[in-house]
Design a protein that fits this description.
single chain, 501 residues, alpha/beta, six-stranded mixed sheet, 13 helices, 24 strands, 35% helix
Length: 501
């Protein structure tokens, strides 16, 4: 049975009472052109574990947004002419400061996002890793020489930064989604304006403080927190303002479509990492224990609130019973509770809307014949947004959970009988971000890996993300790649010079 912890925690009523090694990381203003600015309009940030108030954060004014854009434009005039080695050193400074402050940054993430402290610390290290990676990639932005058909000509290509980048990030990885974008942009020579999610602005503002300490030039990394109502206005401003040359967005497919439409008027560069509906396939020859652990990792990380979470578990009929019983037993050993409790493995959902979707998917599935093998209920005694980690058996394709991304802690298990059938079911979706499969037949690395219509595949692993991997999807999961050597290309233009001899 899933374990709960209700132990009272101290020091979480407001940010001023949190014990941090570096209290300067706790910021609530806008960070524009290297300065901290405030105004009378604020919005409240709460701890999703208990709805206690954490802070009142400045709701950046439209004038402030325009100032941030203008400072990015002015700073770009300087930054684009710096050497890659200079940008590399600044990113490395930033990386080292993040690692030195890892415990504090993790505590901030746990308080505003709800994920357990161990997961939050993992995110901080993952987040810092992007700064290190792009520090190493910055000096390796190469052009080409191309043979010309004309013997008297020489063709040279150069990669130049696109300019000012508008960065729009989600609440589920409030640190990593910023550094993954900013690191690549800055390495290429671009300046950035970050609009963090209104649920989790404190992590972004802590990064802004460290960027200043690292020596990132003023105006190159602006952070403009706004509330949910103003988020729509700022998103449209970013897309329509011709001073912003590129948009990088991580979020839902529906919002991505809106931003893409709004960007059409200025034909700016865009890269989107959008929704997922990841299949997780267990073949009859799989190592079942390894597959169960992979399912725990890929399905229940952050209580199912990641874009690469497994959403549909397809299990071969010959191993269905063994896998289902072992997964339910493994889930029962996990601990649900407030993230600052070190015994906790899984925290709350982010808000009521997320909780209601989990409830809706379970109710719909059970009404159509699914069986609850583990969990199944909300846990209001822990807090308003806690829900048990849930395993559903006998799931069929007429249930909502087979087609909609849950973004919550439900593992629906669907039987299949052959490879062709499971590939057809796995690809029967409009999105294609990630997919997973477990098999000891290594010929399937290519057969199944190539057949899954997704951007990323995990074979015999439930953990795929790291700075060196190209992250992104196909179909309505978006376009462009983040992380890896490829992502800097998203922030550069190729210029060609033809030289006549």
């Amino acid at each position: 049975m899933l374990r709960y912890t209700t132990r009272k925690l101290t020091g979480i009523r407001c940010l001023s009472t949190i014990s941090l090694k570096n209290p300067e990381l706790l910021k609530t203003g806008s960070f524009i052109n290297g300065k901290w600015l405030t105004n009378d309009e604020t919005f409240q940030v709460n701890n999703p574990a208990n709805l206690e108030k954490l802070a009142d954060v400045t709701n950046t004014s439209i004038h402030g947004i325009n100032s941030a854009i203008e400072s990015s434009v002015d700073s770009f005039k300087y930054l684009k002419d710096t050497t890659p080695r200079i940008r590399s050193q600044l990113l490395l400074n930033f990386y080292k400061l993040m690692m030195d402050s890892a415990d504090d940054l993790a505590k901030i993430i746990t308080l505003e996002n709800g994920k357990p402290l161990a997961d939050a610390l993992g995110e901080v290290k993952y987040s810092a890793g992007f700064l290190q990676w792009f520090a190493e990639e910055a000096p390796r932005i190469y052009g080409d020489t191309i043979p010309s058909a004309n013997p008297n000509n020489r063709i040279l290509t150069f990669k130049q930064p696109v300019g000012v980048v508008g960065i729009l990030t989600p609440w589920n990885f409030p640190s990593a989604m910023i550094t993954r974008k900013f690191g690549a942009a800055f390495a290429a020579g671009c300046t950035s304006i970050v609009k963090p999610a209104c649920e989790t602005p404190l992590s972004a503002l802590a990064l802004a403080h460290l960027s200043k300490e690292a020596g990132i030039p003023d105006g190159c990394f602006n952070v403009v927190p706004v509330d949910s109502e103003k988020t729509k206005i700022v998103g449209e401003m970013f897309c329509s303002d011709k001073r912003i040359n590129k948009i990088s967005f991580t979020g839902s497919t529906n919002i991505g479509k809106i931003l893409m439409s709004q960007s059409a008027s200025s034909l700016k560069r865009i890269s989107f990492e959008l929704g997922g509906n990841a299949p997780f396939i267990v073949f009859e020859d799989a190592d079942i224990d390894k597959a169960v652990q992979g399912a725990i990792t890929s399905k229940f990380r952050s209580s199912g609130q990641t874009c690469v979470c497994a959403n549909r578990l397809y299990v071969h009929e010959k191993v269905y019973d063994e896998f289902s019983s072992k997964l339910a037993a493994a889930v029962g050993k996990l601990t649900l509770g407030p993230g600052l409790d070190l015994s906790v493995t899984h925290g709350p959902l982010i808000h009521e809307k997320a909780l209601n979707k989990v409830k809706e998917h379970i109710t719909d599935a059970v009404s159509k014949g699914a069986k609850i093998l583990a969990g199944g209920n909300a846990v209001p005694e822990l807090g308003p947004f806690f829900h048990e980690l849930t395993v559903l058996g006998d799931v069929t394709h007429d249930m909502k959970i087979s087609h909609e991304e849950t973004f919550g802690p439900i593992a629906p298990i669907i039987k299949f009988s052959n490879d062709e059938q499971v590939i057809e079911m796995a690809n029967d979706t409009d999105v294609g971000l990630s997919g997973y499969f477990f098999s000891q037949d290594y010929s399937k690395i290519f057969k199944i890996g190539e057949a899954l219509n997704v951007g990323m595949v995990g074979c015999n692993t439930g953990a795929i993300s790291e700075a060196s991997m190209p992250f992104g999807g196909v179909k309505e999961s978006g376009f462009g790649r983040e992380g890896s050597k490829y992502s800097i290309q998203e922030y550069t233009n190729i210029k060609t010079i033809v030289v006549g001899l």
